[in-house]
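Fill-in record for Nitroreductase.
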Amino acid sequence: MTDKPARSISALDAVTSRRSVRRFLPDTVSDRTVYDLLDAAARAPSGQNMQPWLVHVVTGETRATLCREVSAAVERGERTDEYPYFPQQIREPYLSRRRKIGFDLFEIYGIGREDMAGRRQALLRNFEFFGAPVGLFFTMERDWGMGAWIDCAMLMTNVMTLAPAFGLRTCPQQAWCEYGPVVHRVLDIPDSHVIISGMALGYADAQARENRLTTDRVPAAQFVTRHI
């Protein structure tokens, strides 16, 4: 493990090799590495350079408390979404894409389609950061307009793209926003701020089967409209 970025990784490789890692090693990530990564990611563009993003880095006892409290809220059925992520009715082709990634992942885990208990346990692994020692939470003040959401998304993309240069991998986790009040309370995030997403950060377990999952992408020819 190294704190220094491996600058030999090409931008093309960094983007095309990005994966959502769902099993991490317990190895500690140094504070210096986390801050160096975030310093580099903060080169993300933002409207008029206002940089509306805020990041909460969660480790150690606070991480353990957060995992325990949110998992307990899940068991009690206390879901309260921070904001709507999907439309109320998910239509095609999006529904099929969503189902495919779910079924593919459950197959890797060895969970049958009718195994609801197994599915629930798989869900709960989200709230352990999939074993990653570092959790990141991206927030901003609620009164920002939609443009600021784009800015924050570009910061998140930079974090995920740059992480391999530090030997690290990530998993973006909007699932934490389904239990926003608990995250606000444990991390002392004021209600005037919105939690955009969580993210697991750490060293990937190269032996884990779930980390070999590669999701499909629609080719550009299917989502591009050419104007001549």
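KEY FINDING: The chain has a mean pLDDT of 93.
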